[in-house]
Amino acid sequence: MKSEANPSARIRTLRETYGMSQEVLAERSAVPLELIKKIEAGIIPDLAPLVKIARTLGVRLGTILDEDRELGPVLTRKGEGGENLRFITPNAQQRENGLKYTVLAAGKAGRHMEPFIIEVPAKADAPRSSHEGEEFFYVISGHIRLEYGTLSYDLSEGDSIYYDSMVPHRAVALDGQDAQVLAVVYTPV
Question: Lowest CB count within 10 Å: 28, 39, 150, 172, which one?
Answer without folding.
Answer: 150
